[in-house]
Amino acid sequence: MHPHPPMEPLRILVVEDERDEFSLIRGQLQSVEACEVDWEPDLDRALNTLESGHHHACLADFKMGKRSGLDFVKAATARGIKQPVVILSGLRDPAVSLHAIECGAADYLIKTSSDEHTILRTLRHAVSRQRALITAIEERTRLATFGAAMGRALTSMGSLEETLRSCSRILAEFLPVQLVQIHLFNAQSGEFRRMAGEGPLSATTPETPPAPVDFINGEKCISCPAVDDHRLGDRSWIMKHEIAAGLSWPLMLEHHLLGLLTIHSSKPFPGPILEELGSVIPALSAFLARFSLESQVRRTQQLDCVGKMAAGIAHEFKNNLAVIQTHVWEAVEALEEAPPSVTRETLNQIVRVTDSATALAQQLMLFARPDDVALRPLDLNAAILDLRPMIRGAVDQRVSLHVSCHAEATTIESNPILLQQVIVNLSCNARDAMPDGGSLWIETWNVHIDAARAATSPEARVGDYLLLTIRDSGTGMTPETKARLFEPFFTTKAPGKGNGLGLATVFNIVRQHEGWLEVQSEVNVGTTFSIYLPISSKPLPPVPALDQKPLDGEKPQGVQANRERVLIVEDEPVLRMAAEVVLRKANFDVTAAADGQEAMKAWREKNGGFDVLLTDLSMPEGMTGLQLATQLLKDNPRIKVILTSGYAPEMFERGLAGQETMFLQKPYPPSALPEKVRSCLGI
After folding, report:
1. Among 262, 293, 446, 601, which is 20 to 30 Å from 188 by CA?
2. Over 60: is that where the pLDDT of 175 sits?
């Protein structure tokens, strides 16, 4: 326990083997001021008494039988006793006095020249010094703990939001404040976005920062009484919560504003708070700068990966176009030379190959701009076989590619685009490890992980898994390289040949799939990446048979439209005309518009007499498809809405809250349009 504040009446323990001597000392001290003076003649019991924490200080006689006050001081120091011990001696010897101080005594007094005033003053000064020392040690410990906690948070490899929340939570815990907020600054819009807020008032604050940009300009932060400065924001909020002080500190990279740290308190800030924040702000700014740079590099890596895959996709795409050209010429000749059945089969071949070419184009678009979609059931074997042509086009022709799917239970829950990125990235790494050619094996297996096997890997878990292995006969890795394999920005490639984020990205994607990754590698033998993914019992989504797909505009058998009225809004003339033709052939009453204004005009001319709105989401001018749909639904809540776009539907799933809306992904086969309209109408 720590000594009590020295302004309280002193509680003194006198260690003295003579009762008469103790009585004399007690009488002298209590004649000057009210103080508690206790006696203990035994050194060991005196140590136990001091450890209880009741006394502020100890006055020990130098000579006590066979033992001395120096023995007592040494024992007290060894046991970590915090109270100061003052030696009272009849021996005037500077060497002994110095030795006592070196042993841990707070002071050394001579009996003949130290009256009761001197003794009390010395004891009070010793208590004050000891208290200041303890406070300084506690503060250094607190600052070290604070710095270590912030360091762990800033290097945790968590997401941006998780890291900033951790930092604000640590700041709120260690600083005497009621609110800590961290905002990010968008240089393009000039707006702040709150990423983290901690403290008792965090739930009451607005999303915008309490200090505008002009409040934080300058080299240093600005700290001032909040109630005296209107620039801190909403005065009503400040007055309501009795905010006495506010501080805003810009998070900068050179001269570029990255974010803003703000704190508020119901009491004026103590001076040390600026010193504490002064050590945090550079680290927090460096983290934001590093995160911004990593985001840019990750984006660059995606584009680089697209470039690597473009050759493979272009090869397959040109093959498909060649097939289309061949069948078109066959169809032209067959119109004159062959019966209609041959012409139909030829045109169906064109439809199938066109679908394949469209899928390749869609694959490239999604690879360049992946969407944040939820995991869904996926047949891994089928996905790998579909991906084989792309991998073949990406690796060197001197690399022999072997794909073997041994797994029987093949369903996992996956994001196909992210999983594709894993396979392609590891395949490209294998290619780079075989500059003179070699072999690349991609295989799947079913494995069961028991408790003994799970204990051999820190991330392994008991259960049934689908094992995906990607193995090469390349140069392999040293143990030192393997140990740093998944570190961001670590690369063994030459400058300009790699940024060191590829395998870190692979590692994160596998973890997002609730799996883990193991690596075996030997120099001049090769490397094997083993990816363990949980097997899913969910059913796969149905896949329509190509052979049953009708030709453009053909209605499914047994379905007859009743001239339902459709309003088409599409800014691309070719797409607008094609949709109009297909729906007219399917017996729908169609009105087409090029933009939102034309659509509103047609709506007014026909008094809102439409059953279905088919609108593109993105139009270059005027209102968007969402805005148009929202307006028409206000006029006629019964109208059905079909949204179309080249982007994934997850980007717009909250676009028409509370309304049942269908989505049609571009590009779509002509037959899908009347089917979607009929489905929307329930006919």
Report:
1. 262
2. yes
Residue 569 has pLDDT above 60, yes or no: yes
Coil/strand/helix, residue 294: helix
Residue 146 is predicted with a pLDDT of 74
3-state SS record for 422-447: HHHHHHHHHHHCCCCCEEEEEEEEEE
Q: How high is the pLDDT of residue 238?
A: 54
Check if the beta carbon of residue 652 is closer than 8 Å to that of residue 623.
no
Identify the DSSP state of 28. H
Cβ 63 vs Cβ 43: under 8 Å: no
402 shares a domain with 525? yes
Peptide bond into 667 cis (omega under 30): yes
Going by the DSSP 8-state scheme, the letter that residue 541 receives in this structure is P
> Whole-angstrom Cα distance, residue 641 to residue 664?
11
Residue 613's domain spans which residues? 552-681
CB-count exposure of residue 62 (10 Å: 0-12, 13-18, 19+): buried
CB burial class (10 A; 0-12, 13-18, 19+) of residue 75? middle
CATH number at residue 176: 3.30.450.40
In this predicted model, what pLDDT tens digit does every residue of 604-629 receive, in sequence order?
999 999 999 999 887 766 788 888 99
Please report, as a single letter, which amino acid is at residue 158. Answer: G
Structure confidence by residue, pLDDT tens digits, 259-272: 888 777 767 766 56
Cα–Cα distance, 216 to 237 (Å, whole number): 20
Q: Do 610 and 573 belong together in one domain?
A: yes
Give just the sign of the alpha carbon dihedral 490, 493, 495, 496.
negative
Tokens of 334: 């067959």
Alpha-carbon 327 to chain mean position:
51
C-alpha–C-alpha distance, residues 491 and 432, integer Å: 12
388 and 514 co-located in one domain: yes
Check whether residue 442 and residue 521 sit in a common domain.
yes
Cα 175 to Cα 144, 195, 274: the distances in Å are 14, 19, 10
pLDDT for 70 beyond 50: yes
pLDDT score recorded for residue 28: 83
Burial (CB < 10 A; 0-12, 13-18, 19+), residue 22, is: buried
Whether 554 contacts 347, CB under 8 Å: no
Coil/strand/helix, residue 261: strand
| DSSP label of 267 | S
Residues 387 and 529 in one domain: yes
Six-digit token string for 324: 């289309």
All residues at 6 or more sequence positions from 467 whose CB lies less than 8 Å from its CB, including other chains = 407, 444, 445, 446, 447, 530, 531, 532, 533
3-state secondary structure at position 660: coil
373 closest CA partner among 423, 412, 414: 414
Give, rounded to a whole angstrom, the gap between the first and last alpha carbons of the chain: 82
Residue pair 15/46 in contact by the 8 Å Cβ criterion: yes
The span from the CA of 329 to the CA of 323, in Å, is 10
The pLDDT score that the predictor gives to residue 488 is: 55
The percent helix, strand, coil of the chain (3-state, each to 5) is 45, 20, 30
Query: Using CA atoms, how far apart are residues 588 and 671, in angstroms rounded to an integer?
Result: 14
CATH number of the domain that residue 86 is part of: 3.40.50.2300
